[in-house]
Amino acid sequence: MKTHAIIPIFIPHxxxxxxxxFCNQKAITARMQPxxxxxxxxxxxxxxxxxxxxxxxxxxxxxYGGSFTGIPIRLQQEYLSVAKEYKDKGLIxxxxxxxxxxxxxxxILDNLKSCGADIIELGVQSFDEEVLRLSNRGHSRxxxxxxxxxxxxxxxxxxxxxxxxxxGDTHEKSIRSAAEAVKIKPSIARIYPTIIIxxxxxxxxxxxxxxxxxxxEDAVRTAKGxxxxxxxxxxxVIRIGLKxxxxxxxxxxxxxxxxxxxxxxxxxAEIARENLEKQLxxxxxxxxxPDKKSQKNFNEKTPPVIGFYSNGPSFSYMIGNRKxxxxxxxxxxxxxxxxxxxxxxxxxQAYLAxxxxxxxxxxx
Length: 364
Known about the structure:
Blueprint: E1 4-11, H1 25-29, H2 37-51, E2 58-65, H3 73-88, E3 94-99, H4 106-114, E4 119-125, H5 129-134, H6 141-153, E5 157-164, H7 171-184, E6 188-193, E7 195-197, H8 201-207, H9 216-232, E8 236-240, E9 254-257, H10 263-285, E10 305-310, H11 315-319, H12 324-332, E11 337-342, E12 352-355
Parallel strand pairs: 1-2, 2-3, 3-4, 4-5, 5-6, 6-8, 10-11
Antiparallel strand pairs: 7-9, 10-12
Helix pairs in contact: 2-3, 7-9, 9-10
């Protein structure tokens, strides 16, 4: 059961004069009316009825879009005052916002504290100076460490956002960025693949053949490596990949890159497959499965049956996107039959492979 919900409030690109090569929000902002206090109230009021009586314990009002702390203090206070009103009433529990590392200082944090903010996510993207420069991020890696330390010192929950496949990026650089993020010890993190959106500088670089996007396979491999580094260090990776609503591209289109509507499932499915196959190999080594190649103890009519188990929330990862894991095992181990089961006693992302006691009995 879902116990955490987000009320997304999109703030136009007013707060950021920078032109990152992958961003197209300025063009969208030019066509949007500025958000007012009443708009924030209307958004919260629209969402709250849909969240009642669903067992949700934590509701966050989350300000997304442009760099929140870059907009005028007066506007920050107006927006946050509405969210704080609902927080004080107990209708929402946390106020969440995103900004840039170089838009953090003592005056900004003092204001956010007084306005009841709880979570600050920093758009880091990369810890590699060359990647930051080629992406026109406008900040250094040192500003990330400085801002992160200040956010934590003020008692805010810290989040870091990382991107893979930016100009100048490599698998190794992205892995190092994840390792650098671990040193900061944020509470939460996100991993986004780079996509090419029409009429961005990245689009122009792509058209000039100055930028080659990652293949989906390489993006999944890199995101998987980063995710495991972060997860194994106790960091909650709340997002891997982009939802369609994350792509602020009114009347535009994705030109290229690694957008996939189920990107997290692709990453999690690979991890599940590797986990299960490792267990399967141990079962084979221990001679619990007859070897078809040698025909030793093998009976075509009653092939060995291996059960794969996960809890309910992890079941789709175990099966894989479009049953990719199921098909993988069936093709690679044609002399074995595989069954997939839900075991509510298993933890999230915990997978178990075990022989079924009576081979073939499930298929009679």
